[in-house]
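Task: sequence design from structure.
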């Protein structure tokens, strides 16, 4: 891809690396930048186009890098700035793109900005964070809750005010109503953009601005025991505020100072709200992350409806995207089961819009059970026992069958899955029908198929466990038929105008088979069919 290709983020395939867990190169049990460089050949062979790295910046690691104490450095755990420069050089030399995580909602409480801010009410940086007087009874200023449990307000005894933290108390929220703060983060963006990074995934972008009047959040009548405590209130005053769109438009202008960069937003909102993040005249985020598949009930009709709703909600000219996994949500192979994980892969890589893969999903990594004494995630520590823990989806990449899976030569920071001796890159590569081979085949197929990259999405009415759609290009179309159940199914292909040729089956064993009158799908099978007589 050429640097000047303005559309690379529309046409490419993204891959999220969680740096702590990808490859350890210095035998400390934690992944690092040099390790990512070592594994670039794997990513090239897989065929992805852009890497997104979760935070690599200096951090006390209270939230594993999402608590940053220096926005323009590299944490020694991950390497040096020279390592980073080597990474970006190697990524670009191989025609790939590099996306960094930008975490502008909060810093670490050890960031010099916060140390200054909390030092005195009169400090120049006091207003860079969100400070409030106690309530009349001395308690927190209002009922806002932390996503990681408890009140979102922490009391600072020295200056006798509370500061707001949407996440941990060690992650004080920045005040995006302060113009100097905005400027400072814009300069952080420019620092990395000048180094050549191809864009940012912006952490909790819909959280940046909070209600100016600090009104209470309303109670959530649907809250039930067993749900995370912050769901007790609806985040009406703490997220998705109208002023956020100006903040994002400003960030976008910084991005647009540079050639062909991308702005991706982390946003968990229903579609009608999500799509507002493309911004007025599409001057907001290029890609507001679409996380609908992360929590979708795995039923054909439900997914068909999700796709239809998303397609219908997209503003004219807005480019779609789809995500199947990330470092905050249970692994797809555990959510839908290993058999359906192959169908999910076909879905992700044949839908209209930029796909983002999460490291390890391509080898079918599942959620790893974490014993109580192995828990690292602060969310699980603060809100234990209700299944919120994120360690299980962050375990080390399984490269081979050596004692630490080729990830490290010492015990890793999180336990390895107990199946790594079988389910690893080396073994799955040698198996021509493995999930890894399927991912490679799908990626390769997508790259060679303009219909999949930029064709239209046309649903085909199907019933039961079948999800069928056409991707219509200018010259030709392909049809994707997915069986979301374990039972086989026969489809009258005449009715659906499916007759043609199987170009790819999720079992990787039917290529070239002709379809005439009947399409038989095995349980958990998906196929891509081409060569239909009727393209209408
Ligand atoms: C979203 C990130 O993806 C998550 O890992 C983190 O804990 C929170 N933001 C707070 O930064």
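Answer:
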């Amino acid at each position: 891809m050429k640097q000047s290709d303005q559309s690379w983020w529309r046409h490419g395939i993204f891959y999220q690396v969680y740096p702590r867990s990808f490859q350890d190169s210095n035998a400390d049990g934690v992944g690092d930048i040099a390790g990512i460089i070592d594994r670039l050949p794997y990513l090239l062979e897989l065929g992805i186009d852009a890497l997104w790295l979760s935070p690599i910046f200096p951090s006390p690691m209270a939230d594993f890098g999402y608590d940053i104490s220096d926005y323009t450095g590299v944490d020694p755990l991950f390497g040096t700035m020279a390592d980073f420069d080597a990474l970006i050089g190697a990524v670009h030399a191989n025609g790939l793109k590099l996306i960094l995580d930008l975490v502008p909602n909060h810093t670490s409480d050890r960031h010099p900005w916060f140390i200054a801010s909390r030092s005195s009410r009169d400090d120049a940086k006091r207003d860079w964070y969100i400070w409030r007087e106690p309530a009349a009874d001395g308690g927190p200023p209002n009922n806002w809750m932390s996503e990681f449990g408890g009140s979102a307000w922490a009391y600072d005894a020295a200056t006798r005010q509370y500061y707001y933290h949407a996440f941990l108390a060690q992650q004080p929220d920045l005040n995006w109503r302060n113009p100097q703060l905005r400027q400072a983060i814009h300069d952080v963006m420019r620092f990395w953009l000048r180094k050549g990074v191809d864009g940012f995934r912006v952490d909790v972008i819909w959280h940046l601005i909070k209600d100016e009047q600090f009104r209470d959040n309303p109670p959530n009548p649907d809250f039930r025991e067993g749900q995370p405590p912050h769901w007790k209130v609806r985040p009406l005053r703490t997220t998705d505020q109208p002023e956020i769109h100006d903040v994002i438009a400003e960030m976008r202008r910084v991005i647009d100072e540079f050639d062909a960069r991308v702005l991706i937003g982390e946003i968990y909102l229903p579609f009608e709200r999500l799509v507002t993040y493309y911004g007025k005249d599409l001057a907001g985020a290029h890609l507001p992350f679409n996380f609908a598949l992360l929590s979708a009930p795995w039923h054909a009709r439900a997914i068909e409806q999700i796709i239809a709703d998303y397609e219908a909600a997209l503003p004219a000219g807005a480019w779609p995207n789809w995500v199947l996994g990330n470092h905050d949500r249970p692994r797809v192979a555990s959510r839908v089961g290993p058999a359906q994980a192959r169908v999910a892969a076909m879905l992700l890589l044949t839908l209209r819009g930029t796909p983002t893969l999460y490291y390890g999903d391509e080898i079918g990594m599942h959620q790893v059970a974490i014993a109580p004494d192995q828990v690292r995630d602060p969310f699980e520590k603060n809100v234990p026992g209700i299944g919120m823990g994120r360690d299980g989806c962050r375990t080390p990449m399984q490269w081979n069958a050596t004692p630490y899976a080729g990830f490290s030569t010492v015990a890793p920071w999180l336990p390895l899955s107990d199946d790594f001796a079988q389910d690893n890159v080396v073994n799955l590569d040698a198996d021509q029908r493995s999930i890894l081979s399927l991912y490679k085949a799908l990626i390769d197929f997508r790259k060679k198929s303009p219909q999949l990259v930029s064709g239209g999405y046309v649903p085909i009415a199907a019933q039961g466990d079948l999800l069928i759609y056409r991707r219509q290009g200018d010259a030709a179309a392909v049809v994707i038929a997915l069986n979301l159940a374990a039972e086989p199914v026969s489809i009258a292909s005449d009715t659906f105008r499916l007759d043609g040729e199987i170009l790819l089956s999720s079992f990787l064993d039917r290529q070239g088979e002709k379809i005439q009158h009947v399409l038989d799908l095995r349980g958990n099978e998906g196929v891509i069919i081409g060569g239909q007589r009727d393209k209408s």
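The mean pLDDT is 97.
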